[in-house]
Amino acid sequence: MQSTRILMVGALIAGSAAAGSLATSHVPAPVVLAAPATGVASPARPADGGYADVVAKVAPAVVTVRSQRVLKVADQSPFGGQDPFEEFFGRQFPGRRSQPQPPRREGALGSGVVVTADGYILTNNHVVEGSRQVEVELTDGRTMKATVVGADAPSDLAVLKVEAKSLPTLPLGDSDNVRVGDVALAVGNPLGVGQTVTMGIVSAKGRATGGGDSYEDFLQTDAPINQGNSGGALVNTRGELIGINSQILSPSGGNIGIGFAIPSNMAKNVMDQLVTVGAVHRGMLGVTVQGISSDLAGSLGLSGVKGALVSAVSDGGPADKAGVRRGDVIVAIDGQAVKDSNSLRNMVSRLKPGSTVALTLFRGGQERQVAARLAEMPRTAQDDSSAPTPTAARGALGLALQPGDSGLEVTSVDPSGPAADAGIRVGDVLEEVNGAPVRSSADVRSALGKSRGKPALVLVRRGEQTLYVAVPERAA
C-alpha cells in the first residue's frame, strides 16, 4: 500500500495508518545537520527550459521507504462480511457468531530524504507508523534495513537511521525565506512506479488542513504529489530541501494540484530533538484560542483581522500567572506578529519549555506587554517518541492516552496491542500501573519498568466503577 495522507473533501485520511506516533531506540549522540541556507529566493527558470542539473544533484539523496506492520483483522461471520441471517436475527445463534481472523501483514510505501552522510533520513510518521520492519532503497539499487530513531505524530515526522557512510545528502534550505511563486520540485516514489520528479510552484505558505492536535504550517504546492510521495523532498531550484511532502487535497485520491509539505525549518527542529534527546519538547502557554473574523475584529476594536483571541485560560498555567485574561487578543510574541490562532500555536511550540516570552496583548482598545514563563506541552502515549518497544506507535500498552482529572484517559486502543487483549476500552481512565499513580506517559513508562516480565497490574476507572486489569508484557 502506498502511503500518502489524503484529504478527501476535507477529511484527513492516512494512506497507511491512523494518526499516532512511532518511536524506538534513539541515538543520544548529537547529529550535525547542514545549517539552513539563506539568501535570495529561487532563481528564475533556466534559459534551456530544464532542471536536469538540479535533479541530478538531489535525486540520489531521495530514497524509497518500505515498511511492514501487522494488522488485526476485524471479526468476520462464517458467511463473510454479509451474513444473510444477521439482518433478521442478529448474532444469536452459536453457528452464526463471528470467527476471529488471524492478524495479517500490511506493507506501506513512502519516500525519505537523506540529510546526513552517515545515514540519518527524514520521512513522515505515517509512512512508518506501527511498523515492525522498515527498509530503505537507495537510487543505486542498494536496500538497507532501517532503525526508527524516533517519530513525532503531531508534526507527522519520523527519523530513520541506516548503517552507511558517505551517502549523498540534501542540504537544508531556509523555508522561512521561501516565497509564494517560487519554483518547487517534488521528488519521491509515487504509486510505486519508481523515483519521479515533478515541477510546480509554491502556491501558499502557512497552511493548516485541520489535523486536530497536529502542528501544521504547510507549504502548499501544485507540483504533482501522489500516494507514495509522502516523506519525499520538496526542493528549490538551488537543490535545497525546503519541505517534506506530506498530504494532498483530493476528492478522489489522485493529484489535483493541491499538495502540502512540512517546512524544512520545522523538520530540522523536530529531527534535532528526536536525534539528540529522543523526544520533542514543546512550549505551552496554557490558553485556548480562536481565530479573529472581521466581525470579531470590529467588536474588539482591532485595526484589522489579526492575532488570536483567548477564549479560555488554564488555571495556574503560564498565561494565567502572567495576567492573560479571557477576551484578550495575543497579537505578538517576542515582537513577532501573530497572524492567527494556528500561527500562535506553532510559534509557542517552537519555543523551549522554561523560556520566558514577551506577549503583546490587545485589551480594551490598548496594547500591553506581559511576560510569561512557558511550561512544557504534555506528551501522551500517542505523542511519545521515546518509548522503547515495537508497539510504541501507541505506547508500550498499545494505547493513546491524554491527561484527565484522576489519571490518563484512553482515547484509542490498538486492536493488536496488549491492552486490547486485556479488555481496556476507549473512555477508560488509567489511575495506577503496578501500584503507582499515573498522570503522564513518563509515569506509565516508569511504572511498567517494575513489571519484571510479569503482566502489568493496571487500575482502571470505567464510569463509576474501578477494576484491576492484568496487561501481559508485549512480546518483542
Can you put this structure into words, describing what you see?
With 476 residues, the chain is mostly beta strands. The protein folds into 3 domains: 5-47 and 57-68 and 107-276, Thrombin, subunit H (Beta Barrel); 283-376, Roll (Pdz3 Domain), CATH 2.30.42; 381-471, Pdz3 Domain (Roll), CATH 2.30.42.10. Helices cover 13% and strands 33% of the residues. The protein has helices at residues 52-58, 86-89, 125-128, 264-276, 294-300, 318-322, 341-350, 418-422, 441-448, and strands spanning 5-8, 11-13, 62-71, 104-114, 120-123, 133-137, 143-145, 147-152, 157-161, 183-188, 196-207, 218-221, 233-235, 241-249, 259-263, 283-284, 287-290, 308-313, 329-333, 336-337, 356-363, 366-373, 375-376, 399-403, 408-413, 429-433, 436-437, 456-462, 465-471. Strands 7-6-3-4-5-9-8 form a 7-stranded antiparallel sheet. The radius of gyration is 24 Å and the shape is globular. Residues 8-43, 75-81, 83-97 and 381-394 have low confidence and may be disordered.
